[in-house]
TrEMBL record:
This is FAD/NAD(P)-binding protein. Pfam families: GMC_oxred_C, GMC_oxred_N. Gene3D superfamilies: FAD/NAD(P)-binding domain (3.50.50.60), Glucose Oxidase, domain 3 (3.30.560.10). Belongs to the GMC oxidoreductase family. The active site is at 514 (proton donor), 558 (proton acceptor). The keyword Flavoprotein applies. InterPro entries: FAD/NAD-bd_sf, GMC_OxRdtase, GMC_OxRdtase_N, GMC_OxRtase_C. The keyword RNA-binding does not apply. Signal peptide: none annotated. It comes from Glarea lozoyensis (strain ATCC 20868 / MF5171). Residues 268-282 form the Glucose-methanol-choline oxidoreductase N-terminal domain. It comes from the Eukaryota.
Amino acid sequence: MTTSINTDPQDTVYDYIVCGGGTAGAVLAARLAEDENNSVLVIEAGQHNSLLENTIMVGGWSQNFDTEADWNITTEPSPGANGRQVKVSRGKFLGGSSGVNGTLCIRGTKQDYDDWNQPGWSGDEVFGYMKKAENFHDKKWFDADKEAHGYDGLLDIEPHDLVPISNMILESMQDQGLALQPDMFTSGNNPHGCGHAPRTHYKGDRTTSANYFRNKGPNLAIKTDTIVDKVFLEGEAENLKAVAVKIIEKDGSSKELKAKKEIIISGGAYCSPTILMRSGLGPKSELEKHGIDCKIDLPGVGQNLMDHLIVFIFYQTTKPNITNDHLLYKPDALGEAYRQWKEEKQGPLSTFPFGAFAYARLDERLKSEPLWKNAPRKEGCDPMGLKPNQPNIEFFSTECYGGPKQFDQYPDGEKTHAFSLIAELFSPKSRGSVTLKSADPKDNPVVDHNYLSDELDVLVLSEACKFANEIITMGKGTKDIVEGSWPKDLTHHTHTKREDWVPYVKDNATTCYHPGGTCKMGPADDPMAVLDHELRVRGVKGLRVADTSIMPLLNQGHTQMPAYAIGEKAADLIRGKFLKLASVDSANIKMHEASAITGREEVNGNGTVVLN
Ligand SMILES: Cc1cc2nc3c(=O)[nH]c(=O)nc-3n(C[C@H](O)[C@H](O)[C@H](O)COP(=O)(O)OP(=O)(O)OC[C@H]3O[C@@H](n4cnc5c(N)ncnc54)[C@H](O)[C@@H]3O)c2cc1C
């Protein structure tokens, strides 16, 4: 990576300090440093990513878990999920979770962002920023939506070459009513169909937000292995201003670093609220428990925690060489796969073994369910709050056996082979929280996802599993190759009723690693909104948050592309720039105008909204 970034910074004063060098944080810092008059410091709790091969070799993703490169957070027990605790890994290194994720680029629909109802964050605008981030490399076999992709961004993205089982599953999906629209997860305009998901890898290596640091100059400084404890605030009441951060270095010593212009917190949905709380910004009662002086009572900090739940449904096939198991689990196969990646940048470890994808609406399937029929709903929405142009669920398949560490019953890759179809729940009703374990910045937060606490979540996810099973066991492409469930002693392939799937969901639903919402943006009259629509912490000058914690609602997709968009947009907000869009939704412009005349805010000369 060509760079003259300062990785051993000694200065104590910078224009901008970005707390957390993860997905959104790295993007934001790199964009701010494009102006060489800005001095920018990124503080990252974990190591430099170049030291960690498993953040570069895509197939090494799970090897980061339970190591120093993982935050190693486990949830509180969720009563709705039979009291299970779930390991909710996050990347702890430069690049953050972009260096450990499943590489999928599934943007959601424009409606998802319109639903945020925040000036400057319409579907058109957020899709515009996702496009800005992207440098798409097409492949001959792929029928790309060329208009929807970006080609001069800093994040290399390409399609994934399928193995046979994935094409068979795509055939089954179509057979079961999900028409093929190859690039629908980039277009975001189809809530019911199947296609391919582009990936954050290129030429055999994972691409991450750390790629944004390429060609950056010495005005960008990166301090790794350093924890941000808190932000120091100066002034009283209306004039509270963020001026410095307290850091803890690797040797345990602490230091104060000053910011002349702004401090931006990008610690991710689990850690950003904890930095705010340690700084005295959060629910007063929560801060008092830990002896923290409350500067502003912000009850929404750490609340509104959301995630997408997924259920892996594995099947066994005896048909050889249609999955990737033989390339991974046969004796000596893994060694050869590693050699192939290291020397040729090819083979099963150079990409992520997810294969076929689909979105689905479940209106027809759920219409006679009493819970669904009788649930309250907003006009034009289903009980989950989704409009007809938004999917209720996603399906995605694995091209071999594997997943988080609870999936440890490996086939031998010779006589036995396995693959899965995963069902993912969108727009979950259940909400959780992030709170402090103590005021010690080295303590992980208490994460309570409260999974499946709402019966509607169980209903939709169990119907999704039923549909998934029909795709695999009845669909034309796969019905004749399925031997049964995997592991062999399970019988889920025989389930026919939705109710059969309820215990399976409660026992197996796990994280898709998409936490968000814990420092949400919102209007001034929402007491739970932590940020305004320019990501400024309410009541504090010079302090913003930029990562997936800002999302008022999750998108109907995966969360890395919105995280890139949030980093890009945050940089533009700070620099007072607007993205030029072919079409900017006029309602959104009206919202901008409306907020400009409330008296609380005004539009400055270059068009950005600034607080009085
Ligand atoms: C295993 C896994 C698989 C996933 N798969 C996909 C996928 O296929 N597709 C997809 O779209 N999304 C996926 N996601 C989700 C996606 O990667 C995340 O939503 C996104 O990367 C989050 O970006 P962020 O900037 O909010 O947080 P992060 O990228 O997690 O960044 C937060 C950063 O802040 C640092 N930090 C935190 N606290 C402190 C502190 N006190 N001091 C200093 N530094 C701190 C962290 O170490 C980290 O580097 C996955 C995530 C995981 C973990």
